Amino acid sequence: VEDQYIIDRYRPAAIRDVKWMLARRKIIETEKMTVTSEDIEAYRERMAEHNKVTKDQINIDFKTETEQKNFEDFLIEEKLMKMLETNAVIEEVPDTLSAPQDEKKSDLIV
To answer: Could you report the average pLDDT of every consecutive run of 10 residues in the chain (110 residues)?
Structure first.
């Protein structure tokens, strides 16, 4: 695979991902989003209901700080998505990241 093809193909998605990461970080910071004990309890209740067990059976103990951080990131991401769904005006835009429809496999450089 030629380097330029990879650059041309994946650059738009990489730019989009970095922009989202920076915007996400800034929104979380601006909105002062944190994980509270209420968030953890609400998560335990949802998981208990989903798994048809009692809330006490849903264990939220972590073996490492990384596991704890990943869980907190997950809960903050949930908060962020709910906030965006509630407050954002969503506009559909054409997909500019997928390969053009008329591009044939034989046109690809591999």
So the answer is: 90 95 96 94 92 86 89 95 90 76 51
**Residue 109 near residue 2 (C-beta atoms within 8 A):** yes
Predicted pLDDT at 60: 81
pLDDT of 110? 43
Q: At 83, give phi and psi (nearest 5°).
A: -65, -45
Structure tokens at 12: 């738009």
Q: Which two tokens stand for residue 75?
A: 């809960």
Contact status, residue 13 vs residue 97, Cβ threshold 8 Å:
yes
> What is the torsional sign of CA 63, 66, 36, 39?
negative
Q: Which residues contact 45 (CB under 8 A, 6 or more apart)?
A: 55
Q: Which of 17, 5, 50, 31 shows the shortest CA–CA distance to 88?
A: 31
Q: Residue 72 half-sphere exposure, CB side, CA atoms within 13 Å?
A: 13
The pTM assigned to this predicted structure is 0.66
